[in-house]
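Task card 7
Instruction: Convert sequence to structure tokens.
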Amino acid sequence: MTIEFAKSFLMWSSIINMSLMIIWALFVTAIPNTVYRMQTKFFDIKRDSFDTVIYLFFGIYKLLIIFFNIIPWIVLEIIGQ
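Output:
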């Protein structure tokens, strides 16, 4: 695997993951009651707990994207020049 391939892979992985997170955030913001009703079909969870879980999910997902996609991509950009 070349550095150019790794940089390209990490860049596109970051873009795709951030896009998915933004789309999910738009759904949760625009139609929160519908999202809550869909999830309660699978899990018996109260509304306050659901809001907390969604907030934690976004935080953890964002951190994982930063640590495993964006930071390695930045490092490769720095050392690849």
